[in-house]
Amino acid sequence: MGNASGGTLETLDAAYRLHRPVLDLDLMTLDSFAAGSAIRAWLKELLRTRDTVRLNVAGPRASQAPTGYARAKEALLHALRSF
């Protein structure tokens, strides 16, 4: 939903600082199919080297990005259909 800021940026910074895997997608520039495909490929790659994966989804507040939740949900549903 544009450049990361606020809590979203803090989440990204923490993940990088802790050397956690990160997939940062801008749902304003990707449709749900493209975002879901990117998520699915990223998760499959992670699962090649790990038994489990914990997924943290972060984004701006609804007041800043009213369509953010719906876009993220649609992309995640697309990504997880193949698992």
In short:
It contains 3 helices and no strands. The chain has about 80 residues and is mainly α. α2 (about 30-50) crosses α3.
Description:
With 83 residues, the protein is mainly alpha-helical. The chain is built from 3 helices and no strands. The protein has helices at residues 6-17, 32-49, 68-80. The longest helix has 18 residues, at 32-49. It starts with 5 loop residues before the first helix and ends with a helix. The mean pLDDT is 90.
End-to-end CA span = 26 Å
How many strand units? 0
SSE arrangement, N to C? HHH
The largest sheet is: none
The tally of helices reads 3
Name the overall outline.
flat
Low-pLDDT runs of 5+ residues are none
The average pLDDT value, as a whole number, equals: 90
Q: Compute the gyration radius: what is it?
A: 13 Å
Q: Approximately how much helix is present in the residues?
A: 40-55%
Helices and strands: which structural class? Answer: mainly alpha
Sheet-strand content, in percent, reads under 5%
